[in-house]
Specification:
Elements (H helix, E strand, L loop, with lengths): L3 H7 L1 H34 L2 H36 L4 H28 L1 H8 L6 H7 L2 H17 L3 H56 L13 H30 L4 H39 L2 H36 L4 H25 L1 H4 L3 H21 L5 H29 L4 H5 L1
Length: about 450
């Protein structure tokens, strides 16, 4: 049996996937740990109701930022990866268009949330005290979304080492600043510190992105960028609509529950449960970040074998991660709850559901990138619409069960979506052309 090093050296895709995954993991750990550390501190210093306030406000920030950036980011990653080598000028215009679009959409969305903060808090959330916090996070939406698209461009260039270094710096800033802000000025200080960290991230990422574009021979261009409008209709618009369906769903579901008498406590419990999901999914989501540009190249070449190999690597990696995490949580799950000052006897059923749901989501994530990478964005939009409708309807029907109702509805929605993604993946692979020379490669 040949050594693993020999196998890696003989497979460009495996080597690129392995190195990209390792570097991305190193860079993402600190960034993903920040909300969890903040949640732990809030639960100890201020109690579960304060966790609910943080969860709703932070969820609004994340949903709005991803709504502004996700569609543009997917377009940037996919098309910069596809054109960087074959047509650098087009890749440069697409990168410029991505930055213009995210600046405009995030600024508009941030302005809307700032102007309507009190109305959202009073009429939708029925929690008037959240209006001030919504106003605080409104400007952060712009820098958060811009930073996401900058990173997406680097991902399209497969600059995973640079992304890792930037994420390590960003994570260090967040871990140092957010708890300090929380200690000095409560939730307001935590959000201000978070915004400062994202702003610093934008200033640090921009020169790195420019150097990477130059190194790949891709000239960033803003003039004529909007001439690539076909990419907007083919990728950005369906991805934006998918974001509209996908990203605010958690926010909508928590809004349904927060209106109950013990709503803030139930949302706080759900938010803590989502920190557990984040802990499991951070590595599988990194696999997806590495996967998208590689899978896009495979579909672009019509190389069926390459697509199958990349999917097998990613699903296999996520399956191993999921099995390991489930095993650890079954043994030490009570400790996790005690860290957040929760009662294991009362709250463990919610977390059992989340653990197994997260394992299922981890294995399904690579399949979810097939519509994007194969160019079937509108099909992906339709699948996402089905997931969103199932999740919201399920939460509405189970709202009296609080946090448990949300996680059950989430499991049902993801289970159905996984079945659909499996069927579509088979369809997309069968339609992928593969020449004899490619089969022999």
């Amino acid at each position: 049996m040949r050594p693993i090093r020999t196998l890696i050296s003989q497979s460009a895709d495996l080597r690129r996937f392995s190195f990209g995954f390792v570097w991305s993991v190193l860079g993402t750990v600190a960034v993903r740990l920040t909300p969890m550390i903040t949640t732990i501190l809030i639960s100890h210093w201020f109690g579960i109701e304060a966790v609910g306030k943080f969860g709703v406000t932070y969820g609004t920030l994340v949903s709005a930022s991803m709504l502004a950036a996700t569609g543009v980011s997917l377009m940037a990653t996919r098309n910069v990866a596809a054109y960087a080598t074959t047509d650098p000028e087009t890749a440069g215009r697409l990168a410029g268009m991505a930055l213009i679009l995210v600046a405009a959409t995030s600024a508009l969305l941030g302005l809307v949330i700032f102007c309507l903060a009190d109305d959202i808090a009073n009429r939708l959330l029925r929690q008037p005290q959240l209006g001030f916090y919504l106003g605080v996070i409104a400007p952060i939406i712009v820098v958060s979304a811009l930073n996401s698209v900058q990173t997406a461009i680097l991902s399209g260039l497969q600059e995973f080492r640079a992304i890792a270094r930037l994420n390590i710096i960003m994570g260090a800033l967040m871990i140092a600043a957010v708890p300090a802000g929380l200690y000095l000025h409560g939730l307001t200080g935590a959000f201000i510190a978070l915004g400062c960290a994202y702003l610093a991230g934008c200033f640090i990422t921009m020169p790195t992105m420019m150097r990477a574009l130059k190194a790949h021979g891709v000239p960033l261009a803003f003039r004529g960028a909007l001439s690539q409008w076909r990419m907007i209709t083919r990728y950005a618009i369906p991805a934006l609509l998918a974001s509209i369906l996908y990203e605010p769903v958690n926010w909508i579901c928590t809004t349904i529950v927060v209106n109950k008498p013990d709503g803030l406590e139930q949302v706080g419990l759900y938010f803590i449960a989502m920190q557990l999901e984040t802990l499991l999914l951070f590595a599988p989501q990194i696999v997806v970040q590495v996967l998208i540009p590689m899978l896009s190249t495979g579909f672009g070449e019509g190389n069926r074998r390459r697509v199958l190999n990349i999917l097998a690597m990613s699903i296999g990696t996520n399956l191993v991660i999921a099995i390991g995490f489930v095993s650890v949580m079954m043994l030490f799950g009570d400790w996790f709850l005690l860290v957040f000052k929760l009662d294991p006897a009362r709250d463990w059923p919610v977390f059992v559901i989340v653990v197994f749901a997260s394992a299922m989501i981890a294995c399904a994530l690579p399949l979810g990138q097939v519509p994007v990478s194969s160019g079937h964005m509108w099909t992906g939009l339709t699948i996402t619409a089905g997931w969103a409708a199932t999740f919201i309807i399920g939460t509405w029907l189970l709202q009296d069960q609080g946090a448990k109702g949300i996680v059950i509805a989430r499991v049902i929605a993801w289970g159905l979506q996984t079945l659909v993604y499996t069927g579509f993946t088979r369809f997309a692979i069968l339609r992928t052309g593969c020449s004899n020379s490619q089969e022999k490669a």
